[in-house]
Amino acid sequence: MTFRVLDPTPEKAPPRGQKAARLDTLKGKTVGFISNGKEGTKGFFAHVERLLREQYGVKNVVFRTKTNYSAPADKHIVAEIRSWDAVISGVGD
Amino acid sequence: MPLASRAYEAPDIAAVQELYHSKGWTDGLPIVPPTEDAVRACLEWAMMPPDQLIGVEPVRGLAITAEKIAINAVMAGCLPMHFPAVVTAWTAMMQPEFLVHGATASTGGSAIMVVLNGPIRKEIGATGTFNALGNKDRATAAIGRAIRLCLINLLEARPGEIDRSTLGHPGKFSYCIAEDEEDTTWLPLHVQRGVEREASAVTVMAAGAPRQIMNEWTTKPEEILETFAADMRANLRHYSIHPGNYAIIVPKQLREHLQNAGWTKTKIAEFIHERARIHRREWADVGKGSVVRDKGDRVYPALASPEHLLVIAAGGPAGGFGAVIPPWLGNKSRAVTLPIGACVDCEPPKK
Questions:
Q1: Which chain A residue's Cα is nearest to B59?
Q2: In whole angstroms, what is the distance from residue B108 CA to residue B27 CA?
Q3: Does the distance separating the beta carbons of B103 and A70 come in below 8 Å?
Q4: A15–B75: do the CB atoms touch at under 8 Å?
Q5: What radius of gyration, in Å, describes the C-alpha atoms of chain B?
């Protein structure tokens, strides 16, 4: 007996965002960090900040923390991204 | 209306199983072949066109249609009469406050617990007595499994992909219970949460594994409930200190003591709200002293308010065994209750 059975998946890829334009240099730029608020982000992001400032000449570093680490970033944080040159977001588990 | 899903041909039942397993479309167990006839029977039972939009997953923007839920429900072993409960559960899971993406993707490893209330329980044979949290009947087994197969196939919640659970728990195969409304004087869960008593309803909660308690040595309500509260305090100490929706399963033997003393679900929730709380300094007792810091005297309740406790009457007729079902992780996800057949975010009728 031949079975004719159906695909249980959406068969469509979820909507994807577009990549921002790449930067030629980080020198003099403003970089934002979006923390999910977990303990592990503190030391990790502090270390990355030091590397960015000392080795890549980053001028400003902005730290923001999500109110819910399992949800997308808060709207006011997303809005603020426009004023940054680059953004780093990590899990920090 | 034709179905939109791609069809595959397989020469026999073994080939169907291998096809679905090889594509990562199962939970590891054999599935029921989702043929067009079986899928259409589910949709017709619920009077839904195949392309009816059940919801859009709020974080990744994935649109979920009735047809795709029906395919997964058939695979899980659902009969058409089970399908409305699965669809309603998914409608509830799509609400932003449920945060299904976080609850499904988190290393915390929760499962989606489904609680059935109202007349549908009897219509489909969903039972809330013996083995209430285990294998008990076809309806709850299949409905709970359908939720998981939908998560796997519609949200890509496969272990190591979207599902990043460190451990997970057995409820991730199937986690559906029916309240024993007939053998209690308490209001059913859905009525406590604002649904009409005559309606059938589904409650979903991002839930950890059940934590079983036992107290057969008293008839005093305060002492019985202290055992539940103590287990919640243990969860606050050992797992997460943040408040959220907890559920407690109260079996007949313990219910009768509470009911005879005039304790309602509301009174129980108020008592538990007061008793299930710890000081942050207690974390130092269980190896978590490094994060107590200067907040040791701060009090952390398990419930932000009494109505966050889901009190569920269920369990076999004998035994003082209850259960505490903790939240996935504090208040990150809220339990959602919806009546079956209700329209959520429907367009207003056109004049």
A1: A72
A2: 19
A3: yes
A4: no
A5: 21
Chain A nearest C-alpha distance from B150 (Å): 8
CA contacts within 13 A on the Cβ side of B196: 7
d(CA A24, CA A22): 7
* CA A56 distance to own-chain centroid: 19
- Choosing among B19, B40, B54, B62, which should be mutated to test the A contact, i.e. which has the most A CBs within 10 A? B62
Interval B72-107: pLDDT, tens: 999 999 999 999 999 999 999 999 999 999 999 999
How far away is chain B from the Cα of A39, in angstroms, using its nearest Cα?
A: 9
| Domain segments of chain B as ranges | 13-338
Answer yes or no: do B36 and A68 touch at CB < 8 A.
no
User: What interhelical angle do B265-275 and B221-238 show, nearest 10?
Assistant: 50
Residue whose C-alpha is closest to residue B154's, from B75, B63, B85, B48? B63
The domain containing residue A56 runs over which residues? Answer: 30-89
Write out pLDDT tens, residues B285-304: 999 999 899 999 999 999 99
> Using the beta-carbon criterion (under 8 Å), do B102 and A71 form an inter-chain contact?
yes
Q: Would A36 be classed as within a structural domain?
A: yes
Q: How far apart are CA A8 and CA B245, in angstroms?
A: 31
Q: DSSP H helical segments within chain B, as ranges?
A: 13-22, 36-45, 66-76, 83-93, 100-105, 120-124, 138-154, 189-192, 221-238, 252-260, 265-275
**What pTM value is reported for the model?**
0.93
The total number of structural domains in chain A stands at: 1
